[in-house]
Amino acid sequence: MFSELEKISEVDESALILYARLRQLEKWLREMVYVELKTKKGRNWFNFNKTKKTYESDKAVTHIPTADDNPLSFTTFDELVKLIQNNWDLFSEYLPPKITWEVKLDEIVHIRNRVAHFRSGHTDDIERLLQLMRDIDNGFWRFCTDYNDLQPILPPDRDAVAKKYVDLDPFSFKEVAPNEWAQIGSAPRDLRYIVSISSLRRRWIEKSVVIDGTSGYIYNVNIHLRDSRQFDYSKFLATASKYKAELIHICLDTFSSTVRVTIPAIFGSDKVCEIIDGLIIIVENSMTLHRPIDSDDQTVQKLSEEWPEYVLGPKNPLTFLGPDMPCSFFNVIKSS
């Protein structure tokens, strides 16, 4: 069997590499903008009227539907760049100095336009793009690992959300000595799931004792099924989608035993608790019988790709890449 590339008489390998790298860059820039803006502003993180026409035109083509639903997926690259420039304080920790960023990105915009309109490129186009990706590689690693740098809320009594659900986590942090905390405990045999609440802080906001209602903080909700129970993820996602405007992400795991949900703290504890209460009800109705799952099983990942951008599968670095996992984010280490 010939691959589709082998059937094409003229294949420009450098053009394909350039396209793939540009797609990778733009995809992650959109993800970064989405996370930071939604964490800062909540539901009104974006002017949806800007993409309404393009969005509706895309969805009208019902015979070739896609999962894309995030308004950033329907913006132009120029508009994406303007969002970064107009909210620079949210991204300065991850990108080069603003002047340097703007100069280098101006080159990338020209290169991108050449590729988009199938014009001939310059011999240095790939290297210029890869150099920019090297420049921001560590920044994107920090962006991603910050999202997995979960912090316990101690003591739980100081936060309304953590306090409400602390009894649903038998292994939550306990004060074993004055100002000394440890994860200890035991779970009742009939406990079907554990709900643990932690927090995330974005780099652009100063540390705060108060998380409730604070822009720049995220409530991280982890719901884990016990005793070999598993999620019917399709059922869970279908019902949980009603919260998509408030959530940042729903993260799925390979073994269908855990759901992780991130919610901007700016909504306030009343709204956050309302969402978590609703999710717990959905969990109660989404459990299924255990089936053996191999660590290489791609079922959950494929399912996540059928859903809009707020659903992340186990292969997405935002679901697993932590501060203790150093790597090249874009795999663009300069060859010697």
Descriptive report:
Strands 1-4-5-8-7-10 form a six-stranded mixed sheet. It has eleven helices and ten strands. The protein has helices at 4-7, 13-41, 52-60, 77-86, 88-91, 98-116, 125-146, 160-165, 233-240, 269-284, 299-304, and strands at 151-152, 173-177, 180-183, 193-201, 217-225, 230-231, 249-252, 258-264, 287-288, 311-312. The protein has 336 residues and is of the alpha+beta class. The chain folds into two domains: 11-146, no CATH class; 151-319, no CATH class. Residues 22-135 form the Swt1-like HEPN domain. This is Swt1-like HEPN domain-containing protein. It comes from Aliidiomarina sedimenti.
Task: Give a nutshell description of this structure.
This protein is an alpha+beta fold. It has 11 helices and 10 strands.
**Major pleated sheet:** 6 strands, mixed
Shape: globular
Helix % is 25-40%
Mean pLDDT score: 93
User: Radius of gyration over alpha carbons?
Assistant: 22 Å
Provide the structure class: alpha+beta
Give the SSE string: HHHHHHHEHEEEEEHEEHEHE
Number of domains: 2
* Low-confidence sequence ranges: none
State which percent range the strand residues make up. Answer: 5-15%
Helical element count? 11
Find the count of extended strands (DSSP E, 2+ residues): 10
- First and last CA, distance: 37 Å
Strand order of the largest sheet: 1-4-5-8-7-10
